[in-house]
Write a structure and sequence with these properties.
The structure is a single chain. The chain has 341 residues and is of the alpha+beta class. It is built from six helices and 17 strands. Strands 1, 2, 3, 4, 5, 6, 7, 8 and 17 form a nine-stranded antiparallel beta sheet that branches. It starts with 20 loop residues before the first strand and ends with a strand. Bound molecules: pyridoxal-5'-phosphate and 2-OXO-4-methylpentanoic acid. 2-OXO-4-methylpentanoic acid binds next to loops.
Length: 341
């Protein structure tokens, strides 16, 4: 597809092939110099480590077309660091963090025609990933890996944009204590597929996963962290847990809440049975940005946020406006957040 055929305003969250992708190969204990290539297909052995034992990790970030026409990315250094943490946990070699950032910028530059126009609400989603490629039949880490980055133009992750979502407290677990919930491993998302299909079949947009040990505290959804707003609208409260992904969006929103809106922020364990103490709930992540939640169903009990579950919360919308304003060059960013392509 040429970028001329793309309806930027009507884009959903899907895959559209763009021109170039970055590839680097790890063999004999070293990464090669890496290159941009055109072929989107991968050929591998039937016994590749990724196919047999799911040895794969990934990242997600976006490139934005700013108000002044520049193309920028948002805090790619944090994705580089998190990918390193993910790699080490799955016994994979880390891709050097400085090379990760360079490769992201290079891949976006090569696909600049696919960065949606300013004002369209769409962005270029960047997906770095790494997987074990050589044959592995005994359970052990692969010895050869491919690191790749592709890009795809995307619109909103949830259909309906900022229309508040309805969630259910899942009967399934996503991540075990001392497991892999705090890294971005493909296996975590495989674990969530049956749960998300079940939730959709029952008419919900997403799942709230409780902590697997006690099933009483809020963890996260399949692809985003939670933030809650207290009834007096003075404080943001967000779950603290070792088994959720450390969201870069959430870390950024904490700064926005404190430094731009003068709000208090608390990270703590949040009991599911205290959710009615909050006036707003939002899902935050690269794909989700901040998506307001109107209602959470907990086994026959409904928690409604705000007076009207159809109306997004005021603080969530303010946070969203400032964060996207920073990403689009409309509002001054803290030092080091914006990388010009
Ligand atoms: N939690 C999960 C499970 C995710 O997949 C994501 C998306 O990356 C997030 C949270 C949000 O993280 P970030 O803000 O870094 O995109
Ligand atoms: C992201 O927000 O980048 C993610 O990886 C989440 C995924 C569910 C699309």
């Amino acid at each position: 597809m040429s970028n001329k055929d793309i309806d930027w305003d009507g884009l959903g969250f899907g895959y559209i092939k763009t021109d170039k992708r970055y590839v680097s190969y790890y063999k004999d204990d070293a990464w090669d110099e890496g290159a941009l290539i055109s072929d989107e297909n991968i050929v591998m052995n039937e016994c590749a480590g990724v196919l047999q034992y799911a040895q794969t990790i990934f990242e997600g970030l976006k490139a934005y077309r700013s108000k002044n026409g520049d193309i920028v990315t948002f805090r790619p250094d944090l994705n580089a660091k998190r990918m390193r943490d993910s790699a080490l946990r799955l016994e994979m070699p880390a891709f050097p963090e400085d090379r990760f950032v360079e490769a992201v910028l290079k891949t976006v530059r090569a696909n600049a025609d696919y960065v949606p126009p300013y004002g369209s609400g769409a962005t270029l989603y960047i997906r770095p990933f790494m997987y074990g490629k050589n044959p592995v039949i005994g359970v052990k880490p692969a010895s050869e890996y491919e690191f790749r980055i592709f890009t795809t133009p995307v619109g909103p992750y949830f259909k309906g944009g900022v229309k508040p979502l309805t969630l259910k407290v899942s009967d399934f677990d996503r991540a075990a204590p001392h497991g892999t919930g705090n890294i971005k491993a493909g296996l975590n998302y495989a674990m969530s597929l049956h749960a998300i299909v079940t939730a959709h079949e029952e008419g919900y947009d997403e799942n709230l996963y409780p902590d697997a040990a006690t099933r009483t505290y809020v963890e996260e959804t399949g692809g985003a962290n939670f933030i809650f707003v207290t009834k007096d609208k003075k404080k943001i409260v967000t779950p603290r847990s070792d088994s959720i992904l450390p969201s870069i969006t959430k870390r950024s929103l904490i700064t926005v809440a404190k430094d731009y809106l003068g709000l208090e922020v608390e990270e703590c364990k949040i009991p599911i049975d205290r959710l009615s103490d909050y006036s707003e709930c939002g899902l935050c992540g690269t794909a989700a940005v901040i998506s307001p939640v109107g209602k959470i169903a907990d086994h026959g009990k409904e928690i409604i946020f705000g007076d009207d579950p159809e109306k997004p919360g005021e603080i969530c919308m303010k946070l969203r406006e400032i964060l996207t304003g920073i990403q689009l060059g409309e509002i001054e960013a803290p030092d080091g957040w914006i990388y010009k392509v």
